[in-house]
Design a protein that fits this description.
alpha+beta; TATA-Binding Protein; 7 strands; single chain; 7-stranded antiparallel beta sheet
């Protein structure tokens, strides 16, 4: 009977470590990609400005790569919190255009479950919102020509 309890406890501990599994899957979740008008440097600065407009805090930034995190949203009632962490990688696509890759991870912690999990998101409204805001920032900076100007 003790052996059976010991095996059950080991199994539980083995499965308890599975919450880090989605983080290892982050490399298997492909980014959302969009090609935008603008040179690498212009798009890089616009990407930073886009995160700031969306109330994200820049956590890491080097030419061609930006990482940012949203505010932490908490629920006192349920004892949990959630945060989005986004990463952008920018590459030259062709002359005057850049390819923007966007990955988004949701980080959640819960007192009731007891732990933190990271889950890369395949689909989320944030992707479209980010790219639309990026286009707007590029337009405002004069990188993208307005369709009205012919």
């Amino acid at each position: 009977m003790r052996l059976l309890r010991f095996i059950a406890a080991l199994s539980f501990l083995g499965f308890a470590g599975c919450e880090s599994l989605p983080e290892s899957l982050a490399s298997t979740v492909p980014p959302k990609v969009q090609v935008v008008d603008g040179k690498l440097e212009q798009v890089y600065f616009a990407a930073q400005q886009t995160f700031k407009r969306l109330d994200f805090i820049l956590t890491r930034s080097t030419m061609g790569s930006v990482e940012a995190a949203s505010a932490i949203h908490t629920s006192e009632t349920f004892g949990d919190s959630k945060q989005l962490v986004a990463r952008v990688s920018i590459h030259e696509a062709e002359p005057g255009k850049s390819e923007v890759e966007l990955w988004v991870t949701e980080e959640a912690s819960s007192r009731s479950v007891g732990g933190t999990r990271r889950q890369p998101l395949r689909e989320n409204g944030f992707f479209a919102h980010y790219f639309a805001t990026l286009q707007q920032v590029l337009q405002e900076q004069g990188v993208v020509k307005s369709a009205d100007k012919n």
